[in-house]
């Protein structure tokens, strides 16, 4: 029995020594990762204690720890759900987030697959470069363009008139908001988002295409049986991560697209948090609303990953 205990105790020590040995051997990689880990820890993990503000009557003069606890501590959450505009705000958030995900997620995949089929390298590079440019345009510039194009004398109305439609002020009200918001998001992200898929497609063994040509496969069959399986794991991981941000709409763009005629129709949780927290100074209340949003996003990520793991364990995030 004594020999067995000694042998059992020696196993963890051996594993621990092996771990430190690996760290020493790969110290260059750990040193390379250290700045990134430090930045994430400082700016992402340390500020987590700030969620206590959601459960306190926060006063800047007293600080987070000096402020008194609310009674009951969930008071700010019930206040949000009792708000008469709560349902409309949540619906606006879901509508913007889901539609944005439905259109912005598959378009880079489709674009990468189509671009991969181009034969001329020079033409392919030109198309890639042009598609990347919108990503680097400021949100302020994008919204200025949308406001100009959507006016009665703008480009969008010129197109409408060409097809025999009447000119309308597309910036008035929220009728055309989703069309402009989602369309501009696709335009900005299709080229930039395709980079990771093109990188994955560059690893495809070219002999697979030669074999497919011999078997008489057409382009659609090559995409379906060679290209798509190559980028499917990458697409699955990105989908899981993007679902987690489906409720975190680009509030900066929404704020810049708002005006007196559509403000109430375009209010999402993110813009509501900005208005109540930054503009009105209700820090505890806005923190509670944003914490509610973060919890829902956390659940969405885990739920999407669980579904992915159920359908295809190899393509799940964990």
TrEMBL record:
It is a multi-pass membrane protein. Its main location: membrane. The keyword Lipid metabolism does not apply. One of its GO terms (cellular component) is plasma membrane. Keywords: Cell membrane, Membrane, Transmembrane, Transmembrane helix, Transport. Pfam families: BPD_transp_1. It is found in: Cell membrane. Residues 90-304 form the ABC transmembrane type-1 domain. The chain crosses the membrane at residues 29-55, 89-115, 136-156, 176-200, 288-308. GO terms for biological process: transmembrane transport. InterPro entries: ABC_transporter_permease (IPR051393), MetI-like (IPR000515), MetI-like_sf (IPR035906). The keyword Transport applies. Gene3D superfamilies: MetI-like. Belongs to the binding-protein-dependent transport system permease family. This is Sugar ABC transporter permease.
């Amino acid at each position: 029995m004594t020999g067995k205990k000694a042998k059992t105790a020696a196993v963890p020590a051996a594993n621990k020594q092996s771990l430190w040995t690996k760290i020493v051997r790969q110290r260059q990689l750990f040193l390379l990762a250290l700045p990134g880990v430090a930045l994430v820890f400082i700016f992402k993990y340390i500020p987590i204690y700030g969620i206590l503000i959601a459960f306190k009557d926060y006063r800047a003069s007293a600080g987070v720890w000096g402020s008194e606890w609310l009674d009951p501590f969930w008071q700010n959450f019930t206040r949000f759900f009792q708000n008469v505009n709560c349902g409309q705000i949540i619906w606006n958030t879901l509508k913007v987030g889901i539609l944005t995900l439905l259109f912005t997620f598959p378009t880079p995949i489709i674009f990468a697959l189509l671009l991969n089929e181009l034969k001329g390298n020079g033409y392919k590079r030109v198309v890639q470069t042009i598609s990347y440019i919108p990503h680097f345009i400021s949100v302020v510039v994008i919204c200025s363009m949308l406001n100009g194009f959507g006016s009665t004398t703008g480009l969008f109305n010129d197109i409408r008139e060409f097809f025999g439609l009447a000119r309308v002020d597309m910036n008035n009200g929220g009728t055309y908001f989703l069309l402009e918001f989602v369309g501009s998001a696709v335009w900005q992200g299709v080229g930039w988002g395709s980079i990771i898929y093109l990188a994955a497609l560059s690893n495809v063994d070219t002999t697979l295409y030669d074999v497919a040509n011999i078997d008489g496969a057409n382009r659609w069959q090559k995409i379906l049986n060679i290209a798509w399986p190559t980028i499917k794991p990458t697409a699955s991981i990105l989908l899981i991560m993007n679902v987690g941000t489906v409720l975190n709409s680009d509030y900066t763009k929404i704020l810049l697209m708002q005006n007196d005629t559509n403000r109430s129709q375009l209010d999402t949780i993110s813009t509501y948090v900005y208005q109540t927290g930054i503009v009105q100074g209700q820090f505890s209340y806005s923190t509670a609303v944003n914490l509610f949003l973060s919890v829902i996003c956390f659940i969405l990520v885990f739920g999407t990953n669980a579904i992915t793991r159920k359908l295809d364990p190899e393509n799940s995030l964990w």
